[in-house]
Amino acid sequence: MKIIDFRQIESLAVSPAECVDWVHDALLVKDKAYLPPKYSLKLDNDIFINTMPCSIPELGTFGVKVVSRYPFNHPSLDSTLLLYDLHTGELLALMDANWITAMRTGAVASLAVSTLERSEASIYSIMGLGNTARATLLCMLDSRPEKLFTLRLLRYKDQAELFVERFSGYKNVRFEIVEDPEKLVRNADVIISCITSAKGDIAPDDSFREGVLVVPVHTRGFQNCDLFFDKVFADDTEHVRGFRYFDRFRKFAELSDVLKNKVAGRETQEERILSYNIGIALHDIYFAGKILKKGSFENEVSLNKSSEKFWL
After folding, report:
1. What's the CA gap between 155 and 181, in Å, rounded?
2. Does pLDDT of 240 surpass 80?
3. In CATH terms, is domain 108-276 a member of 3.40.50.720?
4. Can you tell me the mean pLDDT for 48-52?
5. Is the domain covering 2-101+281-294 a CATH 3.30.1780.10 domain?
6. Mapping DSSP to helix (H, G, I), strand (E, B) and coil, where does residue 291 land?
7. Integer Cα distance of 120 and 38 in angstroms
8. What is the pLDDT of residue 299?
9. What was the pLDDT predicted at 268?
10. Model confidence at 27: pLDDT above 60
11. Alpha helix locations (H) across the chain?
């Protein structure tokens, strides 16, 4: 069994564009994977602990990731993954999964944006400016270096300024900072939310322009959109079937079916589209399998789960 920590994974220098390729390829084999819905323990004070299993016959692996959110930790999300050989049951690796969680989540959001946005999209709004948002923008910028992004950020403490500083070296993005969620949403072509907690709706219905794409990475704050958006997509049906308004979606399909041309994605420039990126173990286990093959890891490395903060 290999014990693989965050720094070892980071040292592989997997590019954000390659991460987008991995999530795309994983979705193409989703119909052959076994992917039960994640099991979530919801505790007081917005604490949750999710257990996420999946098997992928095409990679010959199965595994389980455990991810928790403790709001008083920095970062608030923490995760660990066990990877097994599907044919023998051998435990192949125990991995720190924080890099995997952030990068697969950002890569799926980036893929959803490039797949479902309107062709004239230019204004991209983003809220919740932690590691998930950083991963998302890394994937967007690295996989589409020819496109100029105008990025609108929601001010919260000093997060927006730190976010701008982090991406100051990129030539294909420019920033503006706004003070409230409605200004963030209004007239935006793409809205990406990486907040992990919300009370009520982020913005009123009339804030969402025709042709907008909304990507709520952690699903919070956009239930009003469920009722009037033209189409809703998700990375897995069973993970959203329990949503309050699931039976009232106007049109629903999985993103994988769009990628395989089984269903249409965006058909007009006026369609309002919602893409729920639930975060599925398919991508965690796929990434873990790719990482294990990519690196040469030593058994004696200890898994460091200290409180040390890391930033993408």
Report:
1. 9
2. yes
3. yes
4. 95
5. yes
6. helix
7. 36
8. 62
9. 97
10. yes
11. 6-11, 16-28, 98-116, 131-143, 159-166, 181-185, 223-228, 255-259, 281-294
Going by their DSSP bridges, the two strands 61-69 and 48-56 should be labelled as antiparallel
63/259 Cα distance (integer angstroms): 25
- Cβ–Cβ < 8 Å for 40, 49: yes
Identify the residue whose tokens are 């963030």.
184
CA distance 305 to 41: 21
Domain ranges of the chain: 2-101+281-294, 108-276
What is the DSSP track for 36-82?
A: PPPEEEE-STT-EEEEEEEEETTTTEEEEEEEEE-TTSSSSEEEEEE
The string of pLDDT tens digits covering residues 80-105 is 999 999 999 999 999 999 999 999 99
CA gyration radius, the chain:
19
Please state the pTM of the whole predicted model: 0.91
Q: How far apart are CA 63 and CA 60, in angstroms?
A: 11
Q: How far apart are CA 106 and CA 126, in angstroms?
A: 12
